[in-house]
Design goal:
With 441 residues, the protein is of the alpha/beta class. Helices cover 50% and strands 8% of the residues. It has 18 helices and seven strands. It is globular, with a radius of gyration of 22 Å.
Length: 441
């Protein structure tokens, strides 16, 4: 295996990783503690005194976690038995084996940022599962639902656009179909701006009309491999035998408005026959504040179906039907909430890697997926994406993200440096986006 650069970490004072560990993560923990406080009476109503004691226990465990982080204490093994506990603790041992620290202990600011950020969310989950009978509680549920409710106007506009498009889809020529495909891909890209972990759990809903902003946003797409996606899927459509399948897999990021944009895209893929089935991959546990779980996926479809607008409810009813018919399939796998980079998938989760190999195309949404695809390392801007994937090539894949972390590869020589000189925060502000493809051309 080729030599890879060092991991991003909080050691670099002033870096985005440093500021995340120093400011954003404690802010998220404070918000989680506050959420539990506010649900105290609900826990009492459901579980009596036992519910109140459980809430106190969870808050105490989370306060301890916040203190460990803020005082840069050693990172400790997980204790509560769960399906992934052993894998996590083995990974912690592996991280410790890489250290030059005199006490051989991984610490918050000196360990890889990807590892400590994932570890923090896994410890939040541990605090909840250690506190029955409230061990079912999703501490991020409220903010995910609020994000959806606050984006209603944009959701209605997108559902209306989709339903009008479907009415005329059979009359579109190839270029018109391609234009519509590109439009919905861009909507899915800019939907990725709605990330609650970036805003410390504060509201980040979509209140603007994305459809009418696409032309203005085009200059901010730094890498645009949409043509590759079109040629791949339109070729599959042309050469497909009658009973055969074209599968697009979407590895999801945020629930709420972004998930709506992903489902709109998935609906179009079926309606245009660019795909015959769409598989969605979400998280098994609440993760990075706004990441999609099976509950969020089902809840959102239900909300859209019962929306007070005819095209919105039509979308929801269609989506429910796609799920029932098996044309849309939701999966989760514990690997997505492990700290490993994706090049480790064949060893750590060979079953998942084998599943992904069946895809005609995999779309990876958002920043965390990009960080795990590229190992969250200090790559040069111009390093080819294929190289940064470090051997992870299960199927043709494309990453769709707005940039909110200090990592970007595959740029033209000098492009990243030029952006850095004019806009130092260009790669963390969410202002720029990419469609970056790896696969046969």
């Amino acid at each position: 295996m080729a030599v890879v650069p060092a991991s991003l970490s909080g050691q670099d004072v002033g870096s985005f990783a440093y500021l995340t560990i120093k400011d954003r993560i404690p802010q998220i923990l404070t918000k989680v503690i506050d959420t539990l406080h506010r649900h105290k009476s609900e826990f009492f109503e459901k579980h009596g005194e036992e519910g109140v004691e459980a809430e106190k226990k969870a808050i105490s465990l989370l306060s301890k976690l916040r203190n460990e982080l803020q005082t840069d204490k050693p990172i400790i093994p997980l204790v509560e038995k769960f399906v992934d506990t052993d894998i996590w603790n083995q990974y912690l041992e592996y991280q410790q084996s890489l250290l030059n620290e005199s006490d051989g202990k991984s610490r918050w600011f000196y360990s890889p940022w990807l590892f400590v950020e994932c570890y923090m969310y896994r410890r939040i989950h541990e605090a909840i599962i250690q506190s029955p009978p409230i061990d079912y509680f999703d501490v991020f549920k409220e903010s995910k639902e609020q994000n959806f409710y606050e984006s209603q106007e944009s959701v209605i506009a997108l559902c209306t656009h989709l339903q009008q498009l479907i009415k005329t889809i059979e009359d579109l020529n190839e270029n018109q179909l391609k234009d519509e495909f590109f439009k919905l891909l861009q909507i899915s890209l800019w939907g990725n701006k709605c990330d609650l972990s970036l805003s410390g759990g504060e509201s980040s809903s979509e209140k603007t009309d994305v459809l009418n902003s696409l032309e203005d946003l085009k200059p901010f797409i730094l890498l645009n491999d949409m043509e590759h996606l079109w040629s791949l899927l339109s070729n599959c459509k042309k050469t497909r035998e009658k009973a055969s399948v074209t599968s697009v897999y979407i590895v999801l990021d945020n629930s709420g408005f972004e998930l709506v944009t992903d489902l709109i895209l998935a609906n179009f893929l079926l309606s245009s026959e660019l795909a015959t089935e769409v598989h969605f991959y979400g998280k098994t546990i609440p993760w990075f504040v706004s990441d999609t779980t099976i509950h969020d996926f089902n809840w959102l479809i239900e909300q859209v179906k019962h929306g007070n607008h005819k095209w919105m409810s039509k979308c929801g009813a269609d989506w429910e039907e796609y799920v029932e018919m098996g044309k849309w399939v939701y999966h989760d796998h514990i690997f997505w909430t492990l700290p490993h980079e994706y090049c480790a998938m064949p060893q750590v989760a060979p079953d998942l890697y084998a599943e992904l190999q069946k895809a005609h195309l995999i779309l990876f949404k958002g920043d965390l997926n990009y960080r795990k695809l590229t190992g969250d390392r200090k790559w040069e801007f111009s390093v080819p994406f294929h190289q940064a994937l470090n051997g992870f090539h299960p199927a043709p894949l494309c990453t769709i993200r707005t940039l909110k972390a200090e990592i970007q590869v595959g740029l033209k020589p000098g492009q990243g440096e030029q952006l850095m000189a004019s806009e130092p925060c260009w790669w963390t502000s969410g202002k720029y986006g990419i469609f970056q493809y790896d696969g046969p051309l």
